[in-house]
């Protein structure tokens, strides 16, 4: 009971934020026939294009490669939202926070829930695709989903705050960050297979932090075999990012609250 009383306010806030995220996402597709269904459909369309363009017939069956790309691309959208979607939060969303009686941490948490909502929709697409195309992928690996979420959620929150603080102090960094994110898309094993890379690809798969997180999600859904290196790398990156993010928040929150 004591534990429930402690977590109940957080769960209540999470459910309320998810409902708001649903309404906001729905309004974004207002006037279209498919409505919110455009969110998963656009993911499927782009994933299908990547699969057809970059798939090599001698690498793996097309269904397996489609699931490989889909699992990576859905997580990439979450990562991209954590970066590009956080460039101007403080600069443009403080009035929203004041109107909704949100603290600075509450504002960033609300936007984190927005990203989680979209990711959950795309995860639903991924799960359906796996059940239809490769039901054998579904197994005990799914129990790794809880630690996977426990890693990416605080990492996303910390990255979001760090990115925004950087652009507050150095506004010109906003354009550079957007450009770097586009480069990171091609430098990450989303539509190319990390295990088969050589030269530059091998270097990127080893030293690109995104590769560790992509490896985790593919292992959770049985797309690739379990490898401890992906989890160790992700946890290490998460600890560093969260540590730096906590220090940045502690030292800058007073300044941020004074921004009009």
How is the topology of this model organized?
Blueprint: H1 2-28, H2 38-54, H3 62-84, H4 89-99, H5 104-133, H6 145-169, H7 173-187, H8 200-207, H9 209-220, H10 228-257
Helix pairs in contact: 1-5, 2-3, 2-5, 3-5, 3-6, 3-7, 3-9, 4-5, 5-6, 6-10, 9-10
Describe the structure.
It is built from 10 helices and no strands. With 260 residues, the protein is mainly alpha-helical. The model has no long low-confidence stretch (mean pLDDT 86). It comes from Pelagibacterium lentulum.
Task: Please give a quick description of this structure.
This protein is 76% helix and 0% strand. With 260 residues, the protein is mainly α.
What are the main properties of this structure?
Sugar ABC transporter permease; mainly alpha; transport; transmembrane helix; globular; 260 residues
Into which percentage range does the β-strand content fall?
under 5%
Mean pLDDT, nearest integer? 86
Which structural class is indicated by helix and strand composition?
mainly alpha
Helix content, binned percent: over 70%
Termini separation? 42 Å
Number of domains as seen in the coordinates = 1
> Rg to the nearest angstrom?
19 Å
Give the biggest sheet. none
Poorly predicted runs of 5 or more residues: none
Number of strands: 0
Number of helices: 10
Shape: globular
What order do the helices and strands follow? HHHHHHHHHH
